[in-house]
Design goal:
Strands 2-8-7-6-5-3-4 form a 7-stranded mixed sheet, sandwiched between helices. It has a 3-stranded antiparallel sheet with strand order 9-12-11, with helices on one face. A two-stranded parallel sheet has the order 1-10. The protein is globular. 43% of the residues lie in helices and 13% in strands. The relative contact order is 0.15. Residues 1-28 have low confidence and may be disordered. The chain is an alpha/beta fold. The termini are far apart. The protein has helices at residues 3-26, 60-75, 78-84, 87-101, 114-124, 127-130, 142-153, 170-176, 199-208, 228-231, 288-304, 306-326, 349-359, 383-393; strands at residues 48-49, 108-111, 133-137, 157-161, 181-187, 212-216, 235-239, 250-254, 342-346, 361-362, 364-366, 371-375.
Length: 394
């Protein structure tokens, strides 16, 4: 891995991405601001929805576009359907997602899901065949850990770093990495408790040992600023139905210098056939309904600005972190953590479930001894939503 080359080309590539993406974004009229965002999510008027880490409600423009598309599919005419099933719309989406993470559109492939993308990465790097190893940690997504443990049972060298008080100690990561480490894989924001990794430090450590870095950003993209150049990330993936506000498909970012070399395609056919850029990792026809939704949702997110979205959510998270422990729900999310997720221990999950259901408050509850409650607000939430949660639990 040529780190000097990465640094030299990073600025030029980022400049090119910004130029391409700005042309895409400028085509979308300005519509909303963070201050008025609650009115764009009708669900917020029906229930106190604090569960965006599970699935984000649709913004009303996305919903309207999907309904129009379904109407054309149901009733015609063919030119109406073609309005949504075309290369221009797909490339618009590709460009906006690239802008969101600081990449070039040619570094973005469409995939069915985050998990499929992660499998494409592990298989495409040929880690097992090379005798290399994978380093991950136990705050990664459960499906990913199942993937790596299954591969370990088949002979792959997998090192799973254990958390300490629900954070990851960089020294423990360093101990797990050696000269044979081919991939360091983690969730940028953990679905367990919202822990935001120090990805720049981890990337530097991985690259010093010649390893590549993959991050799952399904709990981050759209809610936490991402810059793949600054972070030193080689590979990235996410699905769209959480903080990207809808669309049942996903994205795979592959740094340009890996195309067709370090990362080999392992599936073939369909929309990526013959491509030399990241599209070579695409297979079959992506989800058109997902494109329709993401064309609206990404324009909305970019218009509001991810940093503005995070700034709006911070007081909500901080209030949760102050008030939930005070009523008997200790936090397992570090104070000051800059993600939109906070998780708390729950002494009686069934009692909490019944109270929240009665109050119309939606969160994720996990059984266990003790149980857990994950609260994940977004741009449409406010401090009054926290008050309703607290009132329901007391």
């Amino acid at each position: 891995m040529k780190l000097d080359r990465r640094r030299l080309i990073g600025a030029a590539m980022a400049f090119g991405a910004a130029g391409l993406a700005s042309n895409v974004a400028s085509a979308a009229p300005r519509r909303r601001s963070v201050a008025s965002a609650r009115s764009d999510f009708p669900w917020a008027d029906r229930e106190t929805y604090l569960n965006c880490a599970l699935e984000h409600p649709l913004e009303k423009h996305s919903s309207a576009a999907i309904q129009e598309y379904i109407g054309y599919l149901t009733n015609g005419p063919d030119e109406g359907r073609a309005k949504y099933e075309n290369r221009e719309l797909q490339e618009n989406v590709r460009g906006m997602f690239a802008r969101l993470i600081g990449a070039k559109p040619t570094e973005i492939a469409f995939v069915p899901s985050t998990q499929i993308a992660e499998n494409l990465v592990v298989d495409g790097l040929r880690i097992h065949e090379s005798g290399g190893n994978v380093v991950t940690n136990d705050l990664h997504y459960g499906g990913s850990l199942f993937n790596y443990r299954s591969r370990k049972a088949r002979g792959l060298d997998v090192r799973i770093v254990k958390h300490k008080d629900y954070t990851i100690d960089l020294a423990d990561v360093e101990k797990a990495i050696d000269g044979k480490t081919k991939l360091v894989s983690l969730a940028l924001v953990s679905n367990v408790n919202g822990y935001l990794h120090d990805i720049e430090a981890i990337s530097d450590l991985a690259h010093r040992h010649g390893a590549y870095v993959f991050i799952d950003v399904i709990q981050a993209a759209g809610a936490v600023p991402i810059d793949v150049r600054k972070m030193g990330v080689d590979l990235l993936a996410c699905s769209a139905y959480k903080w990207l506000m809808g669309g049942r498909f996903g994205y795979l970012y592959v740094a340009e210098e890996l195309h067709g070399g370090a990362l080999q395609p392992v599936q073939f056919g369909g929309s990526g056939s013959g491509a030399k850029d990241a599209r070579q990792y695409q297979v079959s026809t992506p989800n058109h309904v997902g494109f329709v939704c993401q064309n609206e949702a990404l324009a909305y997110i970019l218009e509001l600005g991810v940093e503005n979205i995070r700034t709006h959510v911070r007081p909500v998270i901080e209030k949760l972190q102050r008030e939930m422990p005070a009523i008997g729900y200790p936090s397992i999310t570090p104070r000051g953590n800059q993600s939109p997720i906070a998780t708390f221990l729950v002494p009686d999950v069934e009692k909490a479930r019944q109270r929240l259901k009665k109050a119309g408050v939606i969160v994720t509850l996990r059984n266990g001894k003790p149980g857990q409650m994950r609260v994940s607000p977004s741009v449409f939430n406010n401090l009054a939503d926290v008050d309703r949660l607290i009132e329901a639990l007391t």
